[in-house]
Amino acid sequence: MPRRRSDVADAAMRERCLSVVLGRMTMKALTAGNDEDASSLLSRWSYLRDENESFDPHARSIIYGSTTKRELVSRLVEYCAENATVADVAQLDLLAVRAAGNATWQAYELADEVAIEGALPSDQQLRKRLQRALAPLVEHDVYVETRAGATWMWLWMHGGGGGRVFRASDVVYAACVPHTAHVFTTRTSPMRRRALTHALAVTFGCCEVREMPLRGRCLRSLARLALQRNALPGLSHQLHNELDLPAAPPRGRAKRAAPPRLDGRAVREDEGERAAKRQRVDAAYGTKPQPTLEQVQYRLKTRFRGLQAAEMDSGQLFRCRVTFTGSSVLDGFRNLVSAGMATWPLPPHVSNLHRMARNLIVLEDRRDAHTSG
Amino acid sequence: MAEILKYLAKLPTPLTAVTLIVGDEGAGTLELANLLLQQITDYHLRVHTATRLPLPEDGAASRPNFDFVIFLLDITRMESFKQTEEALQYVDVAYFHGRSCLIVNGAKKPDRWANDYSIVEELANAYNLQIICCQLEDEEDGAVVRRRLTAPAI
């Protein structure tokens, strides 16, 4: 029976979807481990598993029989594209995004403190709500799954007109954590962002979804920072490990060898002072690793306070931007204090950073109580 | 009044050389101490480290007499220079007659120097200190520094 044009177009679209998604994964991610190893992405893709949860032998032979990534991708696309649905491709894409851990997530707050109470609606219900909310705004495909303590959404918002041409930039990923009023999404175009925030507001029944000045690559850390915003100093340490989200995969710097230790035969004359400093730092930051923030920026809009020789009008504003970047800026601040390179006590806008739920801080002078003139 | 580090405030231990390394955190104190302790010597070598002078009062009773003081300065950090400058004021003049030296770490990265080398030279000349420039992370440099410091005559 000849295939209908729409079937052919659909098959071509699925092939392209799969090709783009597989093409973005590294060869290591595609082939790592064997089919029993959890690190192997393809082995966790349910499309390649049968009812008994065992890995498809033909897929296994493709993976181990291919020598280059191009060959592997083209053989897999040929094998899977005929029957794999958009939902299957979306599931694989989400697996890849979670494993790669290099997406930048933006935090949003559901206004009016609407919490995502108790159990979220089922994945199916959530998907239907999102589809209803997006329907008037943009053509879309939506996939929702619950994994690792969070609900993940894959939203492909494609342009109208004939044909659905898949582009990776048309996909937005979102995640929400139960019992919190925060949602995290990847970056997208302003038009898609407006549609997405409207859809999320309608889906979760709140009047507004507000963008927070908080973004980063480690979703677990962002969720923790958002949750402990304005927490009491002691309580913020208790929230560690409350959220069971996948940890960010170790970045290159985290794999560095442990720092050298002092030979046991040497004697530290200032051991007492070091112990006291360690206690102060632990009291302020806790003993566990800090949430991961890759960038923190301070924008100063203050009067210049510096050397007397500087030729600046004391009333003139000194605009300055200071950016700290690294694998974990909060851990870096703590290490600066431990290493004695930052004087204690730190200013509040540095020591309270883990409770501010932002990585852009604007510092301004206090307005005088009595203005002249 | 802060205690000055006095030479021969206590009796020295026979066949033992007690060295004090004064350098702030991150200057390379740990690396230098480990290097010195790797050297095989005919005498017993003990190494003490401190981040600043004067030394804390607790532990003064059990503290030995220091035979040699090494001031470790990281030329890529201004704080390290200031801390060394301050520490030099709490050392007895007897140490400046061949019983101390100044090690400048970070010497192989002039693009990262926080200070002009002439300022470091001025400081060393003011206290009659011999300067040893090195990059302690470099294995070769570390071996050279270790041999120079533990040789019978410096």
Throw out a few tags for this protein:
heterodimer, A: alpha+beta, Ubiquitin-like (UB roll), 3 domains, 6-stranded antiparallel β-sheet, B: alpha/beta, 5-stranded parallel β-sheet, 5 strands, Chl4/mis15/CENP-N (chain A), centromere (chain A)
Spatial arrangement of strands, main beta sheet of chain A: 2-3-4-5-1-6
Q: Which stretches of chain B are poorly predicted, pLDDT < 50 over at least 5 residues?
A: none
| Biggest sheet details of chain B | 5 strands, parallel
What amount of the residues of chain A lies in strands?
15-25%
Order of helices and strands of chain B: EHEEHEHEH
In CATH, what is the homologous superfamily of chain B?
P-loop containing nucleotide triphosphate hydrolases
Question: Under CATH, the topology of chain B is which?
Answer: Rossmann fold
Low-confidence stretches of chain A: 34-39, 240-255, 369-373
Average pLDDT of chain A, to the nearest integer?
78
Structural class of chain A: alpha+beta
Write out the strand line-up for the largest beta sheet of chain B, numbering strands in chain order. 2-1-3-4-5
Query: What sort of overall outline of chain B do the alpha carbons produce when their principal axes are compared?
Result: globular
Radius of gyration of chain B using CA atoms only: 15 Å
Total domain units of chain B:
1
- CATH class of chain B reads Alpha Beta
Oligomer: heterodimer
Distance between termini of chain B?
A: 33 Å
